[in-house]
Amino acid sequence: MNRFIVINNCLVNVRHIVMAVDEADGTTAFHLDNGEVLHTQSSPELDDALMGIKHTVGIIPVRGLNAIMDDGSRQFQLPVRYLELTADGSCYPLDTHGDDPHWNEDYSFIGLVEAPDKR
């Protein structure tokens, strides 16, 4: 499946972006494979979209892993059954997404560890 990002209210397939250049005036120039150049205001959100951060490309079932989480005052572990692979190559535990809408703001993912053997 192709991945699209929004540039100047247009959906652009990232496969057609040849180069993205940050300009001195705070804009980003996107050079497309058809020779067209699109200019838009630079932003961290645009950078994240271009890199594929938070864009899921696969789900990987796993066993025997725990996610280390931090709530600002303590660290704790949660069992993980699925990893989310994103377009930028990162893996995140799907099981650490809570039902509370503020979950991702209140808890941060630190890393993965092997779960203790419960035999």
Question: What is the compact description of this entry?
Answer:
The chain is mainly β.
Explain the overall architecture.
The chain is built from 2 helices and 9 strands. The chain is mainly beta. It folds into 2 domains: 4-51, no CATH class; 56-114, no CATH class. A hairpin with a 4-residue loop joins β6 and β7 (75-86). The chain is elongated. The model has no long low-confidence stretch (mean pLDDT 86).
Helical fraction: 10-25%
List low-pLDDT spans: none
| Cα-atom radius of gyration | 19 Å
Secondary structure tally, helices: 2
Write down the oligomeric state.
single chain
What overall geometry do the principal axes of the alpha carbons give? elongated
How many beta-strand segments?
9
Distance between the termini: 42 Å
